[in-house]
Design goal:
Distance between the termini: 31 Å
Largest sheet: 7 strands, mixed
Shape: globular
Number of helices: 9
Order of helices and strands: HEHEHEEHEHHEHHHE
CATH topology: Rossmann fold
Radius of gyration: 19 Å
Structural class: alpha/beta
CATH superfamily: Vaccinia Virus protein VP39
CATH class: Alpha Beta
Length: 291
Amino acid sequence: MLKVPHYFDSFIIMHSPTPISIPTPTPTAFAGSIPENYDRYLGPLLFEPYALDLVSRIDPRQAQTVLEIACGTGRVTRHLRSTLLPSAQLMATDINPDMIAVAKSALNDETITWATADAQALPFPDGSFDLVVCQYGLMFVPDKPKAFAEAFRVLKNGGIFLFNTWDKIRHNSFMHTGADVVAGFFADNPPVFFKTPFSMYDEQELYSLAATAGFRNAQVRLVKIDCSSSNALDIANGIVKGNPIYNEIKAGGEQNIQKMIDAVEKAISAKHGDHPVKGTLQAFVCKAEKI
């Protein structure tokens, strides 16, 4: 099993009109209760719609050996398994063992092989897979050219690399609102973590990374989705408890958790309504071929 570096630092962050005392954040992984809250509160809203979109772009007849990078809590994995042919081999990997644990428990599927793996140093031989899939993982990798090169290396000739990345945070309404709210809680040390998930929005960068790694026929498509949640409280819980900054907030005092949740819930309901909450999501979906 590979060593787990901390490049899944923090997913999103939040704000309040009255700053509270919070220790300086340190790099952390998706661990402990965070993966479960991430999946419970953010999974259906943010990741399920794009998981369905991503898998709809696959031709199962051309995918007998499939690798998923950054599988997280298994949102894409589930749909891959139901879409691929029964004879197809599916390997799901993530850098965070606790994320994999949640995915394995939720899917309970013995036909899926799970492994902890670093996208920058995949532990597979050259030319192992027909298809490599990654949903919202590449933004967190420090050496992106290396990750693209690794995806290229483990693909067979004719293989496909299929992935997505978020557009700018201002085009993703709930996250934009929540990030602004949380930032207000940090008086002299505004958080930067929430910028990472929304840092790969340059189409030309995506084309360039693919081409430099050796991919051809790259396609980058902007996909907009209208989304909704039954209530603002679930979104607030996900933003506060479902990302790695939760541990730093908690270290500053348990009372800070509820203060942030209340503030995020209030801001989201004021801007996007409540029961239900309605908003928009926007991301780039990318497909490239190894020839």
